[in-house]
Fold this protein.
Amino acid sequence: MLPTSQVTTIHTLGPTGTNLEKAAHRWFAERRRAGRVVLHAEVEDGLDVMRFDGTEAILACAVYPRLHDLVFENLHRLAMADSFILDTYDMVLATRPGQGPIKTVITHPAPSCLVAGRGEIAYASSNSVAAAECAAGRYDACVTTDRAALTEGLHTVENFGPVPMVFTLHVGKASDDSREVAAC
């Protein structure tokens, strides 16, 4: 396991307002140190820009649909160095004010079971993106966070509450070509 004392930058899922962004800032705050949080369209996008020298890390969560790929496809350059539990923002089903019947719902894949049977389901890369897509009128409703719903001016139809979530920190390490493994 790599030490986390040198981590100054965390790459994670954006746009702003995601549970992962909240967790990244909390990780730095609990260690009483300043740090930079870089948001990406997909968690894995951080791999394309991060340094692999122990100063940068990727933050994911235990329900991230491709966490196993992040771990096993990057054994040669990432080490899971920390994990912690933090409540998410309240998860909500939200619509635009005055929205009629719900026929389409956009959601991140992880909480999609919260709305099973409530309409045609589409998937977004994050809860914040789901809220923006709903606010833009592309879908009747979304599963998102209460924070993202508020930011986008959406109306909460149902509040599922916060979810105690496990977050995982993966520190970039110097590559050792002799230890690289093939993608699973």
